[in-house]
Amino acid sequence: MLPPKSHARTPHLVWDFPQFWSTPSPSSSLQRCWCRARWRPSARRWSGTGGTGWGAPIVIWVPPPGELRAFSRCLGELLQVWGHSSVRVLDLLPLLRALPNPGLRKLLQLVQHRDTFVETQIQRHQACPSPPSDTVLGALLGRNPGARGGPLSPPRLHMALVDLFIGGTETTAAALGWAVAFLLHRPELQARLRAELQGAQGPPGPGDMGRLPLLQATVSETLRLRPPAPLALPHCALRHTSLGGLPVAAGTVLVPNLLAAQQDPDIWQHPEVFLPERFLAPGAPSRSLLPFGCGARSCPGEGLARAELFVFLGLILREFRLEPGPEGLPGLRGSPGTVLRCPSFRLRMVPCQPPGLP
Ligand code: HEM
């Protein structure tokens, strides 16, 4: 239901995701917002202090937990309904929008909920007496002199936040779910990963990717075999061109099939098998790995998503042995949709001996 992306370059949001990610916690207002704020029922708002000794206390607005949970549910549902065939078909045959369509009606209700939440957040931030400048919202509002690009106009700001929420939540969560599901099927690989992690100094951080090659390969292989956005986003050709020798007329909507490309037997050996080791072999076709798309409009969240997956998976595997739950091993067939999710499953997380203890 999103309009196809035009390749005419619109001003791109520029900020450094890894930098936000790696800012040390006590001085990061992102952390401050989410971790140090307190809900004050009498005032019906969250407040928190900088608390780092470097300035006056600040008051920040973070939505109450119930509101956040409802928003998170709304995003999950929205992606599900958006991926439904009755809604997807409208991208290809827009005339069908004139006919009654319960899926479309539900989608529009969810979009309304999403927009109200985003708008409320912007207003809360703007009403803040001393808004933090080094949050994503602060940067988009042009309050961070260190961030490139000026303030965004209100509609652009709104859609930029929507893009971040839609693009940045379910995708990464789905990839983490898939990684765990595959590792339940390969306990011996889990043991090798744990050995790699326990041989490293301290818990994994985003800067450790080069030092933990098997963990990094596991993230890549998960993104290859089950790309969370299997059909990326539709793109519209602005002029006549060709692709792989095939003519493409101006106005054609192209839907890249990343799932199929990443299982092309001409490129990947045993393409349907979960084999992180393939990325450790010399000559691995890493350049053909495209879970984030490619080109000028590829995913701007790639650095953040890779860092999140690397760190979260590493922390889980360092501390726990993962074993199947009472229902046995999880299925590995995804349900089609905008985001390729694994079927829900239960597992046992058995604490491991902390590294360094005899
Ligand atoms: C494993 C996690 C993720 C995957 C697999 C993924 C994948 C993708 C893909 C395939 C696209 C479409 C690229 C194209 O059209 O060629 C995309 C677009 C986008 N993603 Fe991600 N993404 C992930 C995480 C994130 C995160 C964490 C964020 C932000 C916090 C994000 C924000 C966006 C945005 C804003 C777009 C639209 C870009 C544009 O229109 O130019 N994504 N993503």
UniProtKB/TrEMBL annotation:
**Where does the record place a coiled coil?**
none
Instruction: Give the enzyme's EC designation.
Output: 1.14.14.16
Keywords attached to this Swiss-Prot or TrEMBL record, sorted alphabetically, are: Heme, Iron, Lipid-binding, Membrane, Metal-binding, Monooxygenase, Oxidoreductase, Steroid-binding, Steroidogenesis
Pfam families named among the record's database cross-references: p450
Main enzyme class: oxidoreductase
Q: Which GO terms describe its cellular component?
A: endoplasmic reticulum membrane
Keyword Glycosyltransferase listed? The answer is no
What InterPro entries does the record tag this protein with? Cyt_P450, Cyt_P450_CS, Cyt_P450_E_grp-I, Cyt_P450_sf
Its predominant location is endoplasmic reticulum
Q: Where in the cell is it found?
A: Endoplasmic reticulum membrane
Locate the residues binding heme. Answer: C299
Q: Which domain of life is it from?
A: Eukaryota
A single GO molecular-function term is: steroid binding
Q: What's this protein's family per the entry?
A: Belongs to the cytochrome P450 family.
Q: What protein name applies here?
A: Steroid 21-hydroxylase
Q: Which organism is it from?
A: Geospiza parvula (Small tree-finch)
Q: What is the lineage of its organism?
A: Eukaryota, Metazoa, Chordata, Craniata, Vertebrata
